[in-house]
């Protein structure tokens, strides 16, 4: 380049809206640091839409106030507050002030601190326009930056606010946290992601909130969800709640009364995820939500084996996931699942009849995933009341062991899936094969593809099982076999490929593909 050529600052020449978008994509502390770049950049950060405050400490959280004070954006999309893992003390009034400031900016997405002020004078306040506020791992000795960010933030709509506190013993005053959240509400916050903090009353009537994530993990202090008598979140569509105890304190689990009060206060709720440890004497759980489309449940009842009833009345539900720990002692009553299309059951059970009752309520789905890792499920196949699934097109069997697969063939479980077209099996345990003549003759008339994955060493069981499938699937077009490349050598792979190609096939058009899964 000629020495006469002048260097062009293309970044600074971009419009402020572009600067706002760029700075909103990074943690707030880095956005703020751009203010040292030049005079022009000194206040550019104040236009960010995401406020992300990560690792807030009690001795250094004033930057949050400063950021919120200087923020010039008209819409904070995200506000994220994460407190430090060490012992911290941030007054509740301070946190509430931060959130209130975010609400005033009509939205928050993520902001971390003032690390971009260093770019130039022009960039010094550019970060205040971000729409996302992300405060992660807030600590009691360094959370003042949350106040500063919320105070400086100029956006009118905060898209996301994230407040995550440290996992270690901390102390941030409830009034401080409430102030942060209230400030976010004032900024018309759209999404809130909060861990281990109390919630201000202003949050429970926020008109702009569309997504709320709450993580209440008991470490040293007892965290609880306190709700006002009346809750109304007219635009909340996604609710994600985790309420667990790291010490497995079964004597003091978190009550679910306020959790269900919060759920019932969301008239447009579409996506609900619950992972909660409940008291052993919890009464029946009743889910009635006409607008709900997606539901994920992972609730445990401590060490009790008493049976609890779970009633689902969700006529518009399209996806249901019952996760590990929930169905072990749960009797499911499916009052209305008329719109259910896809379901996943990945949990063990204490009693096989409970598992049968659970899957019986899913008989109308089109896409079904079953985690068969529990040996009880293999015995459940023997149950004469095991349901039929006339609408299932795709079936995934995860965590299979040889016993479960043998029982599946012996009791002709696949025959109950009369419209099955795609079968995916993931075998994760080793075992021996029973003689082929011990299985009844079974013809699969609609099955088009089979994907078989073995995460262990390849064994005779796999070959015999696939031989049975190939001999009975008359319309099969493709068999995909996946093996563990860490346990199968190149020579063994060649031998396996040759062995599979020699297996007799009921379908003349069937192709066999061999590939590693890892």
Automatic annotation (TrEMBL):
InterPro entries listed in its UniProt record: F-box-like_dom_sf (IPR036047), F-box_AtFBL13-like (IPR053781), F-box_dom (IPR001810), FBD (IPR006566), FBL13/AtMIF1-like (IPR050232), LRR_dom_sf (IPR032675)
Source organism per UniProt: Artemisia annua (Sweet wormwood)
Domain FBD residues, every copy: 413-515
The protein, known as: FBD-like protein
CDD domains xrefs: F-box_AtFBL13-like
Pfam families: F-box
Gene3D superfamilies the record matches: Ribonuclease Inhibitor (3.80.10.10)
């Amino acid at each position: 380049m000629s020495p006469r050529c002048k260097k062009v600052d293309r970044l600074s020449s971009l419009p402020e809206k572009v600067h706002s978008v760029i700075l909103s994509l990074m943690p707030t502390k880095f956005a703020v640091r751009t203010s040292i770049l030049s005079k022009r950049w000194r206040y550019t950060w104040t236009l960010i839409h995401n406020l992300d405050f990560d690792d807030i400490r009690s001795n250094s959280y004033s930057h949050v106030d400063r950021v919120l004070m200087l923020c010039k954006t008209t819409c904070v999309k995200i506000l994220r507050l994460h407190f430090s893992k060490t012992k911290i003390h941030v007054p509740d009034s301070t946190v509430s002030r931060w959130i209130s400031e975010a609400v005033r900016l009509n939205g928050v997405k993520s902001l971390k601190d003032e690390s971009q002020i260093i770019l130039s004078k022009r960039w010094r306040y550019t970060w205040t326009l971000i729409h996302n506020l992300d405060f992660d791992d807030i600590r009691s000795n360094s959370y003042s930056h949350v106040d500063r960010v919320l105070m400086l933030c100029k956006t009118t709509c905060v898209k996301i606010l994230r407040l995550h506190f440290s996992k270690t013993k901390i102390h941030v005053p409830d009034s401080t946290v409430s102030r942060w959240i209230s400030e976010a509400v004032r900024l018309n916050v759209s999404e809130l992601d909060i861990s281990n903090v109390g919630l201000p009353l202003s949050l429970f009537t926020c008109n702009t909130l569309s997504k709320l994530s709450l993580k209440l993990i008991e470490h040293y202090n007892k965290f609880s969800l306190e709700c006002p008598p009346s809750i109304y979140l007219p635009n909340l569509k996604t609710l994600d709640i985790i309420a667990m105890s790291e010490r497995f304190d079964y004597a003091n689990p978190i009550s679910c009364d306020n959790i269900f009060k919060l759920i019932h206060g969301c008239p447009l709720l579409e996506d609900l995820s619950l992972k909660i440890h409940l008291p052993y004497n919890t009464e029946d759980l009743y889910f009635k939500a006409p607008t709900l489309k997606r539901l994920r449940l992972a609730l445990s009842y401590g060490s009790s084996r008493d049976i609890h009833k779970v009633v689902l009345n969700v006529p518009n539900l399209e996806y249901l996931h019952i996760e590990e720990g929930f169905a072990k002692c749960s009797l499911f009553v499916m009052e209305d699942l008329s719109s259910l299309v896809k379901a996943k059951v990945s949990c063990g059970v204490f009693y096989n009849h409970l598992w049968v009752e659970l899957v019986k309520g899913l008989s109308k789905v089109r896409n079904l995933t079953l985690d068969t890792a529990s040996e009880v499920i293999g015995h459940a196949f023997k149950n004469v009341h095991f349901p039929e699934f006339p609408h299932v097109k795709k079936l995934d069997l995860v965590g299979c062991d040889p016993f479960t697969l043998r029982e599946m063939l012996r009791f002709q479980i696949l025959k109950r899936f009369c419209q099955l077209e795609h079968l995916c099996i993931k075998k994760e345990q080793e075992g021996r094969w029973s003689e082929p003549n011990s299985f009844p003759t079974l013809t699969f008339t609609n099955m088009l593809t089979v994907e078989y994955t073995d995460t262990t060493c390849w064994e005779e069981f796999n070959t015999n099982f696939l031989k049975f499938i190939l001999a009975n699937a008359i319309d099969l077009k493709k068999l995909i076999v996946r093996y563990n490349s860490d346990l199968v050598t190149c020579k063994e792979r060649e031998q396996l490929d040759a062995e599979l190609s020699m297996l007799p096939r009921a379908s003349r058009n069937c192709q066999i593909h061999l590939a590693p899964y890892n």
